[in-house]
Every structure is written in structure tokens, then in C-alpha cells.
Amino acid sequence: MFKKKLSLLSIPVFIGVFLLFFIEFSFVSSLAGKSKNQKDYKLLGKAISLIKNEYIEEPNPFKTLEGAFKSMVDSLDVLSAYLEEPLRKKYISLPSTAFKEPGLIIYKKYGSYPQIIGIRENSPAAGKDLKIGDFISAIDEQSTLTMSMQEVHLLMKDESDKPIRLKVLKPTKTEDITLDRKHPVDELYSYLPLEKTYGILRIHQLFSPCAARIEEELRQRITVQNMPLILDLRNCIEGKDDVAVRLVNLFLQEDKIGYFSNRNGPTQYLSCPDEPEFADVPLIIWTNRATFGPAEIAAAVLQESKRAKVIGLKTSGLTARQNLFVLDDGSGLLLTTQIFHLQSGEPVWQKGVQPDVKMSSGDLTSDAYVEKTYNLIRDM
């Protein structure tokens, strides 16, 4: 793969280009002071020299540079990734392909194993010895340590029923677990009644026509009683930003609720201009670490506007947009190019939504959320 890319470049020239990119990236991002950057460059140069002259074998330049290239991209943030051609094609096909999956939601930082942060109800993973907090060290005998989070998510999905084999790291042991794959829940949302409330509206996916259907549902259920409605956004990892905005607009009217920005400043302001049909309905939002992206935007906006109280765990802060750049060999670079800010200017990206009422990580059952909800209602 990289031999084609480097056929016209000598290794010293490529290393020079790599270092120039590294220096430019560090300067623009202003991640460190000038003196620290200079020290880092000297250390990097020293490391390259030592590897070249002292390592026990002559390094394979193509293998070394491919690893450096992948690591450079994957280390930018948890959503950016280098995708080889098969995974790049799978990523493009996500919106239109009915993939099957085991039902695990994972989060992975660069240089660590992916961690299970959510398990979908009624999924193949729900009936196995898997817990929130377990780590996955291998997928189908491939180590996950050098994978990006995007690669792990894509490897979990398949069009076939082929089981997936996982090596799971638990606090006291390592287990080999095989999981079936099946289609995830088709419903955009589900509804459960709950005493002293308008019920629990559990949102599975924020895709169209989710907001329109929820509006019709609530018209039938909302009465003149002044009771809260629970928006359950736990394990809601998929959706579109515009659908999240339409959901917010059911409860809130604001010209500007936040904006996306790139490295040059704001690029798009989000607005909820319509008269909200449920402006007087008190809202309680349930979150966990597996509340991603558009669901985080909805929770953050409703919380900042004082329209909702949030119960749960801090979300993962994945409120960003990516662009996929296709390389000459068919592989791709998935790069974060825009991040979301609240109207106050506070970024949600990588910070997440802080709950008003925090759940104990030792008990994240729905019953525990209900108990916290009743305590909050009593104090409201």
C-alpha cells in the first residue's frame, strides 16, 4: 500500500515532510508553548536517529512509516481515523445498509483498549457475561490496541450472521466470548408509562421522522396536568443534528441554540424558530456515557436553556462533524472538521454534558434512574 505512495519519495524526504506537517499542526493548534515545542522536536529527532542507528535490525521503512501515518491520524481525537479501503467502503455504506451487530457500544481513546460503555437491551450481548467497564483486547483474534474507535465500531458490524469473537478483559480475568449478530432495534423511539410523570420516551435513534412521530405521540398523551416527561437518551449513539434540533424545538423556541465551528470560527448557527407545542412540559433527561452526538446536542441545549434537568453520567462529548477524504489507494482519512458549541460559547465537544443529578456507576439500572427521578420531582 505505502510502497505506491512512497515510490517517488526517498525516506529522508518523507521524514522531512512528516516533521514539517507535525510542526505546522503543533503551531496551529497551540497545544504547547514555544519552548516546549522546541524541546519536543529535538526529542523526536533524537528518537528517529536512535531508531535508525541503534535498533537491532534495519527498520522496514514502509512498515514503520505506515504505522506512523496511521498513528498520526488516529491520535488526533477519538472520531478521526485512518480507514483502509474495505472499512472506508463500509463506512460510506452505513446509511443505506442494514448491518447486523452484537449490541455493544464502545468508547476508545488512542493507545488504550476499547471499553464497553453501553449494552443494548435484547441484543446478543445482553445475555452474555459482559459488564459496563469491561475492555475488549481482540476482535476475531485481531488486537484492538492500535485500532481507532471508528475501526472497532465498523468491525462490529456485518451484513451476515457470522458470529464475532471477542477477548474481554475483566477486573480479575480474561474471557473469550462469542456473540451473534442481529439487526438492532428498528423503532426510532419507544414509550413506557411511569406514575407521576407523562412517561418515559426512550429515543433509540435520532433519524427522520423521529421528531415528527414524537410530536404526534405527545399530542395524545400530554394533558393539562403539570407532570414531567422523561426523555431517555441512554445508548442513543446514532442520528442527525437537524433531527436533534427539531426535537428540541418541540419544547423550546430560540433564534440561536448553538453553532458548529471549524478552525476559523463559527460556520453554522442552529435555530429553533417554531412555536413549541410543549413549551410548558417539565423535562427530565436521562443520559449515560453512551449518549453520543445529536443526543448530546439535544440534552446540552435543553439543560443550558433551563428547560430540562439531566440525570445520569457525563456524556462522551462526541458532538462533532467529520469529513471523509479518499486517498489514491482507496483508503480514507476521516477527520474531525467542525465541533459544536452552545449559544453561551461553551463547547460540548470532548467535554460532554454534566448531569445535574449524577448516578452511581455501580448501579445504572432503569430502576435506579427512576428512583433518582422521583427524588428530583419531590424537590422541584
Can you tell me the CATH class of the largest domain?
A: Alpha Beta
Terminal CA distance reads 61 Å
Side-by-side strand order of the widest sheet = 8-9-10-13-14-17
Number of helices: 10
Summary of the model, kept short:
32% of the residues lie in helices and 24% in strands. The protein is an alpha+beta fold and 380 residues long.
What does this structure look like?
This protein is 32% helix and 24% strand. Helix 7 packs parallel to helix 8 (241-249) and helix 8 runs parallel beside helix 9. It has three domains: 2-74, no CATH class; 97-179, PDZ domain (Pdz3 Domain, Roll), CATH 2.30.42; 189-379, 2-enoyl-CoA Hydratase, Chain A, domain 1 (Alpha-Beta Complex), CATH 3.90.226.10. Mean pLDDT is 87; it is low at 1-34. The chain has helices spanning 2-6, 11-29, 34-54, 61-74, 85-93, 149-156, 210-221, 241-249, 294-304, 366-379, and strands at 81-83, 104-107, 115-119, 135-139, 142-143, 164-169, 174-179, 189-192, 200-203, 229-232, 254-262, 265-272, 283-287, 308-312, 320-326, 332-342, 357-358. With 380 residues, it is of the alpha+beta class.
Looking at this protein, list some descriptive labels.
single chain, 380 residues, alpha+beta, Pdz3 Domain, 3 domains, five-stranded antiparallel sheet, 10 helices
Question: Strands, helices and their partners?
Answer:
Elements: H1 2-6, H2 11-29, H3 34-54, H4 61-74, E1 81-83, H5 85-93, E2 104-107, E3 115-119, E4 135-139, E5 142-143, H6 149-156, E6 164-169, E7 174-179, E8 189-192, E9 200-203, H7 210-221, E10 229-232, H8 241-249, E11 254-262, E12 265-272, E13 283-287, H9 294-304, E14 308-312, E15 320-326, E16 332-342, E17 357-358, H10 366-379
Parallel strand pairs: 9-10, 10-13, 13-14, 14-17
Antiparallel strand pairs: 1-16, 2-3, 4-5, 4-6, 6-7, 8-9, 11-12, 11-16, 15-16
Helix pairs in contact: 7-8, 8-9
